[in-house]
C-alpha cells in the first residue's frame, strides 16, 4: 500500500481537474463500497467542498446537470463492469479534443 499513487518511486502529482474527478467519482462510489445510501447532491457538494478546502484547492463548480451526467456515466460503467465475463477487460476510449 505504501507504493499506491506512485510512479517510478515518485508520488503522483495531479492537476486540480484530475483531483476533482477522482474525488467526485470516489464520493459516488463510496456508498456501494461502504454499504450506505447514495449521497444526495447537497451531501456530495458539502464533502467535496470540505475535502478541497483541506487540500488547499478551490472546489469545482459542478452544475446540477453535470452531476446528473456524472451519476449516469458512473452507473453505466458499473453496469458494464458487472456484465463483463470473467477474464475479459473493459476498455474505455476518450476523445482527446
Description:
This protein is mainly α and 97 residues long. The protein has one domain (12-83). The chain contains three helices and two strands, in the order ββααα. It has a two-stranded antiparallel sheet with strand order 1-2.
Q: Are there runs of 5+ residues with pLDDT below 50, and where?
A: none
Q: Can you list the strand order of the major beta sheet?
A: 1-2
Instruction: Report how far the terminal alpha carbons are from each other.
Output: 35 Å
Helix and strand composition category? mainly alpha
Beta fraction = under 5%
Overall shape: it is: globular
Helical fraction equals 55-70%
Number of strands: 2
List the total number of helices: 3
Radius of gyration: 15 Å
Q: What does the average pLDDT come to?
A: 84
Order of helices and strands: EEHHH
- Sketch the major β-sheet: 2 strands, antiparallel
Number of structurally distinct domains: 1
Oligomer: single chain
